[in-house]
């Protein structure tokens, strides 16, 4: 009675989906708990005691039928899940009686039945006296997977659940195919034993994919709740996953893949690319504190210019690719890589959270500096004659960048004023990056133009 009362309380804490709550096994938490307890008692106590003085069963035919059934069930469910059009990103549950949503709920329920049938796998191990296979990992995996799918069937039968279930089914297709081949006799088993570790590796990869997907979905949702509603749904602005993925690919290419690719190749001769950044900073703003005004007539135009600036910072990754393809790897310094990656992420933060106001001033200043910088690059790439001419002005490009950072520090510090209504988050995001960049550029300037000159 006490146990049943406890289950009634637990059931009351779980709000079931109205479509599945009356389906078989879904009415109460007591059912999956009872099934899990029976499973544990049999595989750890009753089964081993029963087999203690008996020879192991072969069960070759039963294993072949079971493994084939599992493979076919996983294939069928995966194909049917695809038909419900699951999304890789945030995929909220459709609780309506729409036929596709209802079918997705049925598929999740059938997956629960499939996970229950997987308890038979452990029974086969016990009857074949393969007790070393019935490890704590094995039992924990079967019970927790069954419980998680049961919970999904009861409260979230569809939506975001579908992708992890599909990944799990794909892993099980491979796993039960391996089991099926292993059950065909020692000859085949010896041939495929070397592939056994890859089954575990595949499971680890897919589990990592599930955890990673869940983490970034939560991170995207967290970021979106603080984003500007005008820009939240724009391409590459929704969430932060895309931005971090682009920055990660950039780092991987410029720090490893690019140099590896060019290791035994001659430098490419590439035509120079002129990039001109138009900031769109208008006379609507002053040099003082300017909060983001979402209601101003020009605000949406400025927000779009922020987005284009973000896209331009993505294009600027190509600059590093050109250095690598020309085997100018000394140019791909820590300063260079950090500058491009951090600026790209800050450009995303600007369009996501502060697409306007005083956040437009750094874009204006950075635009002017980049016009000068890329003009210098253009002249330098026009041949030895122009290159020699521009060399004496090279240090001034760095000086201009240092001046830029000094101006931006002073401008950003206005947020600390009690009369400034710009959020402090703007200061916390901008100021550390500016200080780091100033330090790195100053260190470069000192080592290149002061220390070498003294030597």
From TrEMBL:
GO terms for molecular function: fatty acid elongase activity. It is an enzyme of class 2 (transferase). The chain crosses the membrane at residues 25-45, 57-79, 134-153, 159-178, 236-258, 337-354, 360-376, 396-413, 425-445. It is found in: Membrane. Its EC number is 2.3.1.199. It catalyses: a very-long-chain acyl-CoA + malonyl-CoA + H(+) = a very-long-chain 3-oxoacyl-CoA + CO2 + CoA. It comes from the Eukaryota. GO terms for biological process: fatty acid elongation, monounsaturated fatty acid; fatty acid elongation, polyunsaturated fatty acid; fatty acid elongation, saturated fatty acid; sphingolipid biosynthetic process; very long-chain fatty acid biosynthetic process. The keyword Lipid biosynthesis applies. Its main location: membrane. It is a multi-pass membrane protein. Keywords: Fatty acid biosynthesis, Fatty acid metabolism, Lipid biosynthesis, Lipid metabolism, Membrane, Transferase, Transmembrane, Transmembrane helix. Belongs to the ELO family. This is Elongation of very long chain fatty acids protein. It comes from Aphis glycines (Soybean aphid).
């Amino acid at each position: 009675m006490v146990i049943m009362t406890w289950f009634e309380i637990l059931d009351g804490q779980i709000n079931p989906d109205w479509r599945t709550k009356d389906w078989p096994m879904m009415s109460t938490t007591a059912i999956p708990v009872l099934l899990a307890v029976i499973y544990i008692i049999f595989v750890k106590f009753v089964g081993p005691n029963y087999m203690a003085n008996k020879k192991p069963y072969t069960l070759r035919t039963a294993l072949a039928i079971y493994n084939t059934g599992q493979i076919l069930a996983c294939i069928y469910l995966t194909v049917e899940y695809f038909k419900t059009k699951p999304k890789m990103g945030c995929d909220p549950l459709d609780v309506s009686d729409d036929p596709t949503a209802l079918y997705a709920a049925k598929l999740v329920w059938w997956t629960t039945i499939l996970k229950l049938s997987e308890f038979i796998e452990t029974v086969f191990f016990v009857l074949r006296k393969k007790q070393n296979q019935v490890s704590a990992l094995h039992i924990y995996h079967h019970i927790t997977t069954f419980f998680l799918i049961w919970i999904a069937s009861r409260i979230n039968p569809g939506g975001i659940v579908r992708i992890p279930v599909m990944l799990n089914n794909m892993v099980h297709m491979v796993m039960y195919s391996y089991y099926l081949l292993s059950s065909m006799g020692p000859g085949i088993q010896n041939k495929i034993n070397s592939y056994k570790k890859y089954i575990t590796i595949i499971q680890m990869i897919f589990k990592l994919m599930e955890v990673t997907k869940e983490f970034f979905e939560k991170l995207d949702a967290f970021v979106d709740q603080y984003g500007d509603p005008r820009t939240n749904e724009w391409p590459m602005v929704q969430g932060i996953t895309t931005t971090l993925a682009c920055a990660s690919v950039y780092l991987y290419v410029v720090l490893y893949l690019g140099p590896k690719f060019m290791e035994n190749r001659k430098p490419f001769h590439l035509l120079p690319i002129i990039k001109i950044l138009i900031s769109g900073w208008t006379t609507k703003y002053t040099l003082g504190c300017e909060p983001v005004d979402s209601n101003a007539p020009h605000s949406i135009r400025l927000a779009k210019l922020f987005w284009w600036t973000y896209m331009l910072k993505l294009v600027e990754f190509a600059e590093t690719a050109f250095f690598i393809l020309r085997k100018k790897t000394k140019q791909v310094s820590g300063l260079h890589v950090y500058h491009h990656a951090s600026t790209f992420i800050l450009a995303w933060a600007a369009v996501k959270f502060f697409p306007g106001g005083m956040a437009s001033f750094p874009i204006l200043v950075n635009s002017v500096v980049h016009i000068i910088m890329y003009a210098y690059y253009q002249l330098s790439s026009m041949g030895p004659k122009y290159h020699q001419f521009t060399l004496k002005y090279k240090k001034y490009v760095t000086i201009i960048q240092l001046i830029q950072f000094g101006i931006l520090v002073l401008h950003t510090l206005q947020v600390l004023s009690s009369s400034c209504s710009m959020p402090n988050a703007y200061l916390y995001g901008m100021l550390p990056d500016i200080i780091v960049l100033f330090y790195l550029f100053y260190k470069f300037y000192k080592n290149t133009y002061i220390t070498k000159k003294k030597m």
